[in-house]
Write a structure and sequence with these properties.
Elements: E1 14-22, H1 33-47, E2 49-58, H2 69-79, E3 85-88, H3 91-94, H4 98-111, E4 114-117, E5 120-121, H5 127-160, H6 183-197, H7 202-211, H8 224-232, E6 239-242, E7 257-261, H9 270-280, H10 283-294, E8 303-305, E9 320-324, E10 327-331, E11 345-347, H11 348-364, H12 366-401, H13 407-431, H14 444-453, H15 456-466, E12 467-472, E13 486-490
Parallel strand pairs: 1-2, 1-3, 3-4, 8-12
Antiparallel strand pairs: 4-5, 6-7, 9-10, 10-11, 12-13
Helix pairs in contact: 5-12, 6-9, 7-8, 12-13
The structure holds zinc ion.
Zinc ion binds at residues 305, 307, 315, 317, 332, 340-341, 343-344.
Length: 492
Amino acid sequence: MTNSTGTKATSGTRRAAIYCRISQDRGGAGLGVARQEEDCRALCDRVGWDVVAVHTDNDVSAYSGAPRPAWQELLAAVSRGEVDAIAVWHVDRMTRSPRELEDVIDLADRQGVELATVSGEIDLATPTGRMVARMLGAAARHEAEHKAERQTRQRRQAAEAGRVAGGGKRPFGYEDDRVTIREGEAEVLREGVRRVLANESLASICRDWQARGVVSPAGKPWKPSGLRRLLASARISGRREHTPRGSWEGTRPLLGEIVADAVWPGIVSHEDSDRVRRVLSDPARRRRVEGTTRRSYLLSGVLRCGKPKEDGKACGWGMSGRPRSGVARYVCPNTPGTDACAGTATNAERTDQHVRDMVLAALESPAFMRRLRDQDDAGQELYDEIREDEEDLEALALDVGERRISRKEWMIARQPIEDRLNQNRAKLAKVSRIAVLRDFVGSFEDMQARWKKMNNSQRRAIVTACVRSIEVRPANPRKRWDEDRFIFDWIA
Ligand SMILES: [Zn+2]
């Protein structure tokens, strides 16, 4: 709510500047600059503001970083104290990005500037008003991006109506016509998706592919960065994805928006593609994987120190690999500034063997596998729920954009959906690890043979598909090797 009697007891009348922006990001009637100005003048009249200036920018792109001289002028006038209120048609006229909006909010704080919009009143001095402004900005941006999306898609669809666009090397997994699947590569590609879903590192997959002579369409060995783009591309699931030019700076973002089903067939399912896209774009995974590629110890972080502390509870710290006198061991680390007790150690080689045998024995058990598979089915359900919730959020954003529901209703409606989404995504990240076992499980001997050929990153994926963690109790000084020290927390 605007309030012209506010806290400033200076003159009583606010000096308002009207800001208009011409752009193509909102179609239809009413957004010609004349209409914007007229509406804003009426608004200022209504709230008793004195219009002292009108600033107009011609800015045809919704989110390009093109400078807006008139906007800069207006900000300068505000800083000089010549203007103490701004009237705009809609928040999306004023700011084109969340960052620009934050600048305005700062300014409102510093200079006590008031803001009024024709399409609704916003009080930047209150947290609620700011939240509304931020949401309106986000909704407008969403709408603008979709608009650009539709335009580009139309152009591309027109261009591609006859045939698939050529140019550049053929995509991996497809023949030169970019439509026919090249089965040998397609199989390798599906395998890559499964391995990523099983938490294997890209570097590890690249090393393995190189050893097997798998190369890119350009005839070069795969590198993690290229593999990441390949597996995250919606193309491999037969969907067209698009990132509007000018919506990013520097490197193209990993994920574009999926705009349509493509004319070429997919090599992997939409579901697997969505999962792998989520995994590969998760910044937490990047850090994790970078750690993984350096780790030569199979069970670092899987093993937890089980030595009781003074309160009787286990230390619980993740054990890490540390050699002593040339012998590899896992230890509760002696890291200053942490709660790690540094009181547990175990021989790495024997521990790895024991854990391998326990895991293979579990996987040989039909009952264990049945329980794991049940969890995978749960994954399918989770996946469906996530899809539905995402679609609901999209629909809601559209509703508020087209004013079918109020902003307040929007805020109330989206909260439970977002909460559920976050929970389900976290759960899904866990159950997806089970995918790795599809190619692995067999008789104990088969699994042993496969295990032998794997690297530690692959083995780790198998272990973590079966156990959450393994607690290591303190050693019994009378025993040289004691398997009872290891307490497995099985996933199923
Ligand atoms: Zn400890």
